[in-house]
Amino acid sequence: MKLELKNSLSVKLLRVVLLSALIVGVALSVAQIVYDAYKTRQAVAGDAQRILDMFRDPSTQAVYSLDREMGMQVIEGLFQDDAVRMASIGHPNETMLAEKSRALQQSPSRWLTDLILGQERTFTTPLVGKGPYSEYYGDLSITLDTATYGQGFIVNSVIIFISGVLRALAMGMVLYLVYHWLLTKPLSRIIEHLTSINPDRPSEHKIPQIKGHERNELGLWINTANQLLESIERNTHLRHEAESSLLRMAQYDFLTGLPNRQKLQEQLDKILIDAGRRQRRVAVLCVGLDDFKSVNEQFTYQAGDKLLLALADRLRAHSGRLGALARLGGDQFAFQFRKGARHQDGLLPRHEHRATRQAHRGVVLVGTGQFFQCCFLNAIDQVSDVGPIDVSGAHDARFERRHQGTSPQVIGVVLRERPP
Prior knowledge:
single chain; alpha+beta; disordered C terminus
């Protein structure tokens, strides 16, 4: 059994792992980008504070002395930083001592960085004098353009996103290879062994243990599957034995082990077909025990069973020459023989005479001290060429003919005690 690649567990694992890794990688990258945006804003504020601290004293000196030229020198020094877009020195309620501004920087990504960092940010520090009074002179104010920081942020964000996705995909591929080596490949080997198992004899081919997986879930699964296969074969064997036993009970007599009426009829059907094809005649000889009921009443049913077993054993001794042999029920037995051209109607072949002489010998019932002798009345019950044989009619014919005082056409067995 070969699976299509699209239905393979490895491909499904690859899809799931890669998709999961991609989602996780993107999520982690976005989180890191958000954190980097926060750090960039902090960097803007930190740079602004550093610039203000650097130019606070010159600005204070210029505003204290109302020196415009010195103030403009301070402003020019501030504009040496590309991020400074506007700067001013002076008292907020008066005309600025010195101020300067320039246009915003143009950048292709400015539309995005303005949303994250803002277009510009303004920072102010008070200018106070030294001494015990700390007199307030004005403010130093700067406005920083975030375009410069935004370009660096975009570059870092792209690097973070791509590296995060690639890292996640690489981890996904590693996990896929690990899954394939530890799970998919062993499962494929197990499937190959399962396909080679004979359903009729499942325990003949056991699933071998996979090296390195003897004590994990796969090893436990293999052991359980092997035990299940053994149990299936054992239960199948027991079921077949039970079916055979039931079939035998339905076709054979429980006491004597001989075929019953149903089995005899099946055998006779086959015999009649064969006899019709060979143009031979078939006869069925029925044997009964006269007054068998009195044996059960006088010597118990166990003694009657022993008598039936003795008669069955003697008939069975000649079953190879007689052909079909069966117990019809009660004290009734029947056997079949073919009548060739040299056999006259109503006469038994030589081996049938030997069978009747053997059955005529005495029978001693152990435990009763009684001796019984079987006397056969020699006759043939029914002869048929091709039609079905109604064995059950022999029993009725036997009593009807005995009632009329004529010679019985069913062999009777007369039980009599041995003379003292």
